[in-house]
Amino acid sequence: MKVMLLVFALLASVDASARVLVGKSLISKYPVAEQENVFEYQIVNIGDTPASNVELSDEASFPTDQFKILSGSPKIKFATIPPNETVFHHVIVIPLIAQSVLDRDVIVDYTDSETGKIARVSTNWFSKGRFTDFFNKSVMAKVNRSTSSHVLSFAALTVPLTLCSMIFYYRSKSRYSVKQHN
Amino acid sequence: MKLSTIFLLSTIGLLSVYASDVVDGEVTDDAPKAAQEEDDLTIGASPDAGLAFHFVQPADANVLHEFYTGKPVKFLIGFQNKGEKDFVVKFSETSFRYPTDYNYHLQNFTRGEYNRRVAPKEEVTLDYGFYAHESFAGRPVGLVVNVHYQDADGNAFVNNVFNQTVNILEDDSGFSGETGFLFIFFIALSIGGLYLANQFLSKLSRKSGLSKRRVVEQGTSSEVDFEWIPRDAVKNKEKKSPVAGSPKARKSAKKAD
């Protein structure tokens, strides 16, 4: 009986392991230079045992001469990720120049609770090629046209018509309305 | 008809029915052979590749298998090279299939082209995302995700990482223009209805008012009661009564005054 249990335990430990998947995506609508861009890292442990000393390193994607990191760090360490848990990490950067930036691999190193270290890499953004183009801010201003111009054009269309109708109404009322005798 | 002719016709008919059955038997005999030929041409998974799949974007999608239309569905595919040679992960193909017949494609999504080289003992995560169109709302569909890769020798492999029926639900959370304008329309209708009701009610009251006035009104009498008019105004009016006729006549009347 004990031997059987031992055999089962051995088999179970061989199957149980931590496996981490990592993904990176851009949360902001467009990648624009001289503006805040929010990147999200999803680190998922799909294994059965916790993954400890999870280290995310993505400094290669944001060289300090081209990017200014506002909040969040591309290099971060998580003590442990329980099984079937996802960790979301956000990094806000401001690209200093409007240019194409080479996409680099995101590396996650983690240690299984029982076994040794495994390094993990991920590609960024399927089928988007190898570059991320950060657009010029002035170009994006044309795309996201400001709402004030919308209101002004709407007013330019509607205010004259409304004013004319009001003027006609009050003129005719003052001139031709029949005063009721009580 | 004679009994013998009926007998003859019925036997001929039965024979013809059984003859067609024999033909059917010949057709069905061919089918297993065709299936055997197909098996030799299929491509499968490589034993040196370990693939994993995990939904990221709808947080409970791994358990619930429900997606909302118009909201992105993102998932991660883990590729582990357990062999001694390089693998190249070429692309992933995602598709919607008819839930009861997975051979019928409802929608094929754009391939996620990776072309990612994976060294031995290396592990790589790839991601993909798609939107379910609102025309699929309220329907179960079969979601199939296949990963195509090849090894250093050029052998092609396909691994199916997701193959289940999912429910596509309609997204009711956002404020839709339809309900907003419907709301405004009903408000306008109610205001119009109130206005009409007001008109109707006032008409009714006016009718009763008229009858009251009829009671008060005596009708036009020939005698005009000038008691309440001050004497000066009456005299002025008598003086300045306009002369009927053309403006010229009026002018002459004035000159005469």
TrEMBL record, chain A:
Signal peptide residues on this chain, from the entry's feature table: 1-16
Keyword Nucleotide-binding part of the UniProt annotation: no
Keywords (A to Z) from UniProt: Membrane, Signal, Transmembrane, Transmembrane helix
Pfam families per record: TRAP_beta
Transmembrane segments: 151-170
GO cellular component, one term: endoplasmic reticulum
PANTHER family per UniProt: TRANSLOCON-ASSOCIATED PROTEIN SUBUNIT BETA, TRANSLOCON-ASSOCIATED PROTEIN, BETA SUBUNIT PRECURSOR TRAP-BETA SIGNAL SEQUENCE RECEPTOR BETA SUBUNIT
Protein name: Translocon-associated protein subunit beta
TrEMBL record, chain B:
Region (Disordered): 235-257
Principal localisation: endoplasmic reticulum
Keywords: Endoplasmic reticulum, Membrane, Signal, Transmembrane, Transmembrane helix
Topology in membrane: Single-pass type I membrane protein
Localization: Endoplasmic reticulum membrane
InterPro entries the UniProt entry points to: TRAP_alpha
Pfam families xrefs: TRAP_alpha
Gene Ontology cellular component terms for the protein in this record: endoplasmic reticulum membrane
Function according to Swiss-Prot or TrEMBL: TRAP proteins are part of a complex whose function is to bind calcium to the ER membrane and thereby regulate the retention of ER resident proteins. May be involved in the recycling of the translocation apparatus after completion of the translocation process or may function as a membrane-bound chaperone facilitating folding of translocated proteins.
Assembly behavior: Heterotetramer of TRAP-alpha, TRAP-beta, TRAP-delta and TRAP-gamma. Interacts with palmitoylated calnexin (CALX), the interaction is required for efficient folding of glycosylated proteins.
Family according to the record: Belongs to the TRAP-alpha family.
Protein name: Translocon-associated protein subunit alpha
Organism this protein belongs to: Caenorhabditis tropicalis
Lineage: Eukaryota, Metazoa, Ecdysozoa, Nematoda, Chromadorea
